[in-house]
Amino acid sequence: VIDVELSGVRLAQAITDRARLSARSLAATGRAPTLVVVVATDDESSAWYVRSLARSAAKAEVTCEIRHLGPAATTSGIQRAVRDLSADPDVHGIIVQTPLPPGVSMVDVAPWISVDKDVDGANPASLGRLMAGYPGFAPATAEAVVALLDHHAIDVAGRHAVVVGRSTVVGKPVGQLLLDRDATVTVCHSRTPDLVEHTRQADVLVVAVGRARMIRAGHVRPGAVVVDVGTNAVEGGLVGDVDSAGVAAVAAALSPVPGGVGPVTSMLLIEHTVRAAHDAAQRVIPD
Ligand code: NAP
User: Fold this and answer.
1) Angstrom distance (rounded) from CA 63 to CA 77
2) For strand 237-239 and strand 253-254, is the pairing parallel, antiparallel, or unpaired?
3) pTM above 0.85, yes or no
């Protein structure tokens, strides 16, 4: 049985409280933080996610607008919408929701998100900033992983962190954030032979693959800390990439799904929006 459940619920609440305080003082000066989510899909799980994001925003008294472009939106239509939002001084945060319509790639859209408003670190320039150690927004899910470790007082410095998954939204930026905290980082992926060889060496194992319960007790070194980023819809609800029942017997700490990385991610997006509104206010040159 695990010693520590790495719950994200309390941390998400603390971020909400912090963001709300800051949002209120910005609103009092006429700069109510505003997030716009660009949606170009009918996808039901995406609609569910956007609604939950809007609820998170409401808790922190941040305005959240959904800009529906419809599933027939074109690359240039989405680019124009994002460009206009980037130029709009009343908008502080921009998220482009996936999936995008068939034939439209995030690669063509993300560069149009102003880096100052890129609250989910989607613009490649934001990722460049992250790599180079410049201020900017990291992808929220990746940041949520390290925020969860910090919150539970798990220090990764000098430890071996193994990340399974190398996507641009999770795996790669998590690897960078762990490296920034002085972990020794190994990143595994679908072409890694003998995955178990690597995962068994992890002091801290972060899993972001998208395959229900693929990481089992045998993948985990006894006493390791395991963060499960996966969210997989299965019959009976949502499960992670980690077989929690098995892994809980060997790990020292394990994040639950749901209730771990997820709620922290949503609130970080809202907090980033508040920070973007704050930074925008600092950039205004007084008359
Ligand atoms: P993704 O873009 O599909 O990337 C998955 C990664 O896993 C890829 O790098 C892939 O390797 C690797 N992989 C696939 N099969 C593997 C295997 N058998 N062994 C080792 N590696 C394997 O997914 P993602 O966007 O990073 O998301 C990962 C998971 O996190 C999903 O379940 C997603 O729903 C979840 N997620 C959660 C949140 C949250 O807030 N909680 C946010 C975002 C994502 P290759 O690169 O070689 O293909």
Assistant:
1) 24
2) unpaired
3) yes
> How far does CA 59 lie from the centroid of its chain?
18
Question: Which pLDDT belongs to residue 1?
Answer: 54
Mutating to test ligand 1, I would choose from 189, 232, 243 the residue with most ligand atoms within 8 A of its C-beta, which is 189
Q: Chunked in runs of 10, what are the mean pLDDT values of the chain (287 residues)?
A: 86 98 97 98 93 97 98 98 98 98 98 98 98 98 98 97 98 98 98 98 98 98 98 93 97 97 98 98 84
Top mutation candidate among 7, 168, 170, 206 for ligand 1, by most atoms within 8 Å of CB: 170
Q: How far is the CA of 239 from the centre of ligand 1 (A)?
A: 14
Report the pocket of ligand 1 as residue ranges, CB < 6 Å. 141, 164-167, 169-171, 188-192, 195, 208-211, 229-232, 261-262, 265
In the reported structure, the alpha carbon of residue 165 is separated from the centroid of ligand 1 by a whole-number distance in angstroms of 5
